[in-house]
Amino acid sequence: MVKVAPSVLSADFAELKKDLDSIKNCGADWIHYDVMDGHFVPNISFGYSILNDISQVTDLYLDVHLMIENPMKYVDEFIKAHASSITAHIEAFSNEQDIRAFIQHVHHHGVNVGLSIKPATPVDTLIPYLDDLDLVLVMSVEPGFGGQKFQEQAISKIEQLDQLRQERSYLIEVDGGINATTGMLCRQAGADVLVAGSYVFQAENRKEAIESLK
């Protein structure tokens, strides 16, 4: 069964622990934690200190998505803040050596590691690294803002990644515009993890929303 990872970006931060308890009780598997720096993407969210606070009040898997320039500069802080997995954008690196160094560094600290691609980035850019990844994150919207419409070219990317992992074990995650309809398309294409923000946190019935994704 697919895992559901509500994006904490859509939570009510005045009632954060209450919201985290709510999504766990409603069947969420992971917490998706979007980090934005105002440079790599045109928005700012939050950093490692809030992640550390979250880690003290939930036992859900903490799925960190770095939408930042120079991921290596800050990765140790997210490791210390108890990230379960850390995913960086392949577009944030300037060369293959830096990508491999990032993957090895995160794994060395016992944390799962992923790479993400924007809608315009082809799956082929990931192929050299797939053997070493725990997760691949397909962005089905432009990263940086919630509430965007799902871009259907993500489906062919999921299918391609599913075909490429015949002898590999990475998870395929999808983020952006996920609801019951688009979630079903992603599941059918081979996705393992669905990230949903407003669809879960703003639902009248969060349990039903999460179940509709599964």
TrEMBL record:
<keyword id="KW-0862">Zinc</keyword>
<feature type="binding site">
    <location>
        <begin position="144"/>
        <end position="147"/>
    </location>
    <ligand>
        <name>substrate</name>
    </ligand>
</feature>
<comment type="pathway">
    <text>Carbohydrate degradation.</text>
</comment>
<feature type="binding site">
    <location>
        <position position="65"/>
    </location>
    <ligand>
        <name>a divalent metal cation</name>
    </ligand>
</feature>
<feature type="binding site">
    <location>
        <position position="177"/>
    </location>
    <ligand>
        <name>substrate</name>
    </ligand>
</feature>
<feature type="binding site">
    <location>
        <position position="34"/>
    </location>
    <ligand>
        <name>a divalent metal cation</name>
    </ligand>
</feature>
<dbReference type="InterPro" id="IPR026019">
    <property type="entry name" value="Ribul_P_3_epim"/>
</dbReference>
<comment type="function">
    <text>Catalyzes the reversible epimerization of D-ribulose 5-phosphate to D-xylulose 5-phosphate.</text>
</comment>
<keyword id="KW-0464">Manganese</keyword>
<dbReference type="InterPro" id="IPR013785">
    <property type="entry name" value="Aldolase_TIM"/>
</dbReference>
<keyword id="KW-0170">Cobalt</keyword>
<feature type="binding site">
    <location>
        <position position="32"/>
    </location>
    <ligand>
        <name>a divalent metal cation</name>
    </ligand>
</feature>
<dbReference type="Pfam" id="PF00834">
    <property type="entry name" value="Ribul_P_3_epim"/>
</dbReference>
<feature type="binding site">
    <location>
        <position position="175"/>
    </location>
    <ligand>
        <name>a divalent metal cation</name>
    </ligand>
</feature>
<protein>
    <recommendedName>
        <fullName>Ribulose-phosphate 3-epimerase</fullName>
        <ecNumber>5.1.3.1</ecNumber>
    </recommendedName>
</protein>
<feature type="active site" description="Proton acceptor">
    <location>
        <position position="34"/>
    </location>
</feature>
<feature type="binding site">
    <location>
        <position position="7"/>
    </location>
    <ligand>
        <name>substrate</name>
    </ligand>
</feature>
<dbReference type="InterPro" id="IPR000056">
    <property type="entry name" value="Ribul_P_3_epim-like"/>
</dbReference>
<dbReference type="GO" id="GO:0005737">
    <property type="term" value="C:cytoplasm"/>
</dbReference>
<feature type="active site" description="Proton donor">
    <location>
        <position position="175"/>
    </location>
</feature>
<comment type="similarity">
    <text>Belongs to the ribulose-phosphate 3-epimerase family.</text>
</comment>
<feature type="binding site">
    <location>
        <begin position="197"/>
        <end position="198"/>
    </location>
    <ligand>
        <name>substrate</name>
    </ligand>
</feature>
<feature type="binding site">
    <location>
        <position position="65"/>
    </location>
    <ligand>
        <name>substrate</name>
    </ligand>
</feature>
<dbReference type="GO" id="GO:0046872">
    <property type="term" value="F:metal ion binding"/>
</dbReference>
<keyword id="KW-0479">Metal-binding</keyword>
<keyword id="KW-0413">Isomerase</keyword>
<keyword id="KW-0119">Carbohydrate metabolism</keyword>
<feature type="binding site">
    <location>
        <begin position="175"/>
        <end position="177"/>
    </location>
    <ligand>
        <name>substrate</name>
    </ligand>
</feature>
<dbReference type="InterPro" id="IPR011060">
    <property type="entry name" value="RibuloseP-bd_barrel"/>
</dbReference>
<dbReference type="GO" id="GO:0019323">
    <property type="term" value="P:pentose catabolic process"/>
</dbReference>
<dbReference type="GO" id="GO:0004750">
    <property type="term" value="F:D-ribulose-phosphate 3-epimerase activity"/>
</dbReference>
<dbReference type="GO" id="GO:0006098">
    <property type="term" value="P:pentose-phosphate shunt"/>
</dbReference>
